[in-house]
Design goal:
Helices cover about 40% and strands about 15% of the residues. A seven-stranded mixed sheet has the order 3-2-1-4-5-7-6, sandwiched between helices. It is globular.
Length: about 240
């Protein structure tokens, strides 16, 4: 069995990175609320904090990750305030059970049961997700694709687009102007410290155009774009291109 690369850092991950990453998580939640994306899968959920932020914003979230250590941290962590869980304790729920997807089609109860506020966590490979087609409104892939080999990242994105018509991609991008260069260069330091393989995958990701290059190669239509990390990153809300003819 392959060793868990997050075994040593899972316990400290939130403590070290929440000050940096919570802004990204709020941006993801804001985009979901603005676009009416109310059932979301965080396909590489790590410690589960993005799911907690989404839940606090009234968005039902399932978290999946391949790392047992990160899932263990997710189950044990004390996260952002969760008012919907207080509502659930009084017999309510954070979202209506009868959510109707775009196009007027509602997922069947057997294929996609109603969420409770206490979001489910499961161990799953982002390339082989245990969900039916179009089970979610959107899939979040946040700061995950840059650390994967190209073939693995492409497979994870394709699988995300199988289980949802839209994806929220938060990751690094190429500098568009001189003002972006300091931040773009600065992110090399933590990526290098993450290890040789991680840094090699990051450099390959950037050489292929970063997150925007990935979306372009996948033939996605970008419908929302926000700058992150002072221009070193971007949040893209993208969807499959509609085939005509």
């Amino acid at each position: 069995m392959t060793a868990d690369p997050y075994a040593r850092i899972a316990e400290w991950y939130d403590l070290l990175l929440n000050p940096v990453l919570d802004g990204v998580r709020r941006a993801v939640a804001d985009a979901c609320r603005a676009e009416g994306l109310l059932r979301v899968l965080d396909a590489c959920c790590g410690t589960g904090r993005q799911c907690a932020v989404l839940r606090g914003a009234g968005v039902a979230c399932v978290g999946a990750d391949l790392s047992p250590a990160m899932l263990g941290a997710a189950r044990a962590a004390i996260r952002v305030p969760r008012p919907c869980e207080r509502d659930a304790a009084r017999g309510g729920d954070c979202l209506p059970h009868q959510h109707v997807a775009r196009g007027g089609e509602s997922p069947s109860a057997a294929a996609f049961p109603p969420f409770s506020c206490r979001f489910p966590l499961l161990r799953a490979d982002a390339r082989v997700l245990p969900f039916p087609d179009n089970a979610f409104d959107a899939v979040v892939l946040s700061l995950a694709l840059h650390e994967m080999p190209e073939a693995v990242g492409n497979a994870a994105l394709a699988e995300a687009l199988r289980v949802a018509p839209r994806v929220l991609l938060a990751d690094y991008r190429l500098a568009e102007r001189n003002l972006d260069l300091p931040a773009t260069l600065l992110v090399h330091l933590p990526e290098r410290l993450a290890g040789a393989e991680h840094y090699r995958n990051f450099r390959g990701f950037m050489a292929r155009g970063g997150v925007e290059g990935l979306a372009h190669r996948a033939g996605l239509t970008v419908i929302r774009r926000e700058r992150l990390f002072g221009g070193a990153g971007a949040l893209l809300l993208a969807e499959r291109k509609i085939r005509t003819g």
